[in-house]
Amino acid sequence: MSDVASREYDLSQTEPRPLDAPSYASVSDYIALLKPRVMSLVIFTALVGIVRAPGEVHPVIAFTALLCIAIGAGASGALNMWWDADIDAVMSRTKRRPIPAGHVTPGEALAFGLTLSVGSVLVLGLLVNELSAALLAFTIFFYAVVYTMWLKRSTPQNIVIGGAAGAFPPMVGWAAASGGIGLESILLFLIIFFWTPPHFWALALYKSGDYARAGVPMLPVVSGTAETRRQILLYTLILVPLAMSPFFLGMAGLAYGVVSGIAGGLMLLLAVQVYRRREGAPAEQAARRLFGFSILYLFLLFAVLLVEAVAPAGLGL
């Protein structure tokens, strides 16, 4: 990788500033380094892991675990932005991030990410339990090192393998609440793991030019859009029945079974449309619809699991 600290970026038609100059960072810039959208998904899925775990967990312990998981996720985001500052600068959807925009220096982002990483793991280990802390440490390492520093720039399977990092939070939450790893937490991990490729490849279909300019070997860039559409459909065919498995295995109630079935059918329908529509505006629209709905799909699955766990009597389940 090139030395990011020595790079200069265009600050929206203004005079470029060396990235090792004094920081212009605001609180909002540091919040942006945490990738709050990703963090919100991490918090939500980790919460489901906590409330679905067997046994009772003290609310203070649960809050502490959730806070540490959230901070660990934000630390991963900061480390990701530090390493990827060079490619973020040439991609339209990332060029306004704090480092390429010149608001935060790479050194500041690195120090911020490392401090949050160490702090979140230590607090989780000292105040909750060692297993959850070890899982959180591995999650941060996997995202920041295995995915960001290695897989992302070396293989079109970057999203497939790297998706494990985003799938760990419910397992970390489960371990924080129960001190162990259960079958249901593994299923939650697998649902997110198999959801990740169709979700991100749908985005990559209509942002492939960005990835090509940045030199990132995303599947559409390396193998073409036809293969990407085929892979999206294949992963969706695995995802939909997998997402319904908690109901069939007796781990979730009727509400989950109905929602996962209906939402899964819509997810599959959109994946089929992406597979069939190969040219022009209809193809881009199909990919955009799948990307947008995939977020709602995952949210619905975990929302029903959460509601069933905290209010089973009210649902009659």
UniProtKB/TrEMBL annotation:
<keyword id="KW-0350">Heme biosynthesis</keyword>
<feature type="transmembrane region" description="Helical">
    <location>
        <begin position="158"/>
        <end position="180"/>
    </location>
</feature>
<keyword id="KW-0812">Transmembrane</keyword>
<comment type="pathway">
    <text>Porphyrin-containing compound metabolism; heme O biosynthesis; heme O from protoheme: step 1/1.</text>
</comment>
<dbReference type="Pfam" id="PF01040">
    <property type="entry name" value="UbiA"/>
</dbReference>
<feature type="transmembrane region" description="Helical">
    <location>
        <begin position="232"/>
        <end position="249"/>
    </location>
</feature>
<keyword id="KW-0808">Transferase</keyword>
<keyword id="KW-1133">Transmembrane helix</keyword>
<dbReference type="InterPro" id="IPR044878">
    <property type="entry name" value="UbiA_sf"/>
</dbReference>
<feature type="transmembrane region" description="Helical">
    <location>
        <begin position="38"/>
        <end position="55"/>
    </location>
</feature>
<keyword id="KW-1003">Cell membrane</keyword>
<dbReference type="InterPro" id="IPR006369">
    <property type="entry name" value="Protohaem_IX_farnesylTrfase"/>
</dbReference>
<dbReference type="InterPro" id="IPR030470">
    <property type="entry name" value="UbiA_prenylTrfase_CS"/>
</dbReference>
<feature type="transmembrane region" description="Helical">
    <location>
        <begin position="295"/>
        <end position="315"/>
    </location>
</feature>
<feature type="transmembrane region" description="Helical">
    <location>
        <begin position="133"/>
        <end position="151"/>
    </location>
</feature>
<feature type="transmembrane region" description="Helical">
    <location>
        <begin position="104"/>
        <end position="127"/>
    </location>
</feature>
<protein>
    <recommendedName>
        <fullName>Protoheme IX farnesyltransferase</fullName>
        <ecNumber>2.5.1.141</ecNumber>
    </recommendedName>
</protein>
<comment type="function">
    <text>Converts heme B (protoheme IX) to heme O by substitution of the vinyl group on carbon 2 of heme B porphyrin ring with a hydroxyethyl farnesyl side group.</text>
</comment>
<keyword id="KW-0472">Membrane</keyword>
<dbReference type="InterPro" id="IPR000537">
    <property type="entry name" value="UbiA_prenyltransferase"/>
</dbReference>
<comment type="similarity">
    <text>Belongs to the UbiA prenyltransferase family. Protoheme IX farnesyltransferase subfamily.</text>
</comment>
<feature type="transmembrane region" description="Helical">
    <location>
        <begin position="61"/>
        <end position="83"/>
    </location>
</feature>
<feature type="transmembrane region" description="Helical">
    <location>
        <begin position="186"/>
        <end position="206"/>
    </location>
</feature>
<feature type="transmembrane region" description="Helical">
    <location>
        <begin position="255"/>
        <end position="275"/>
    </location>
</feature>
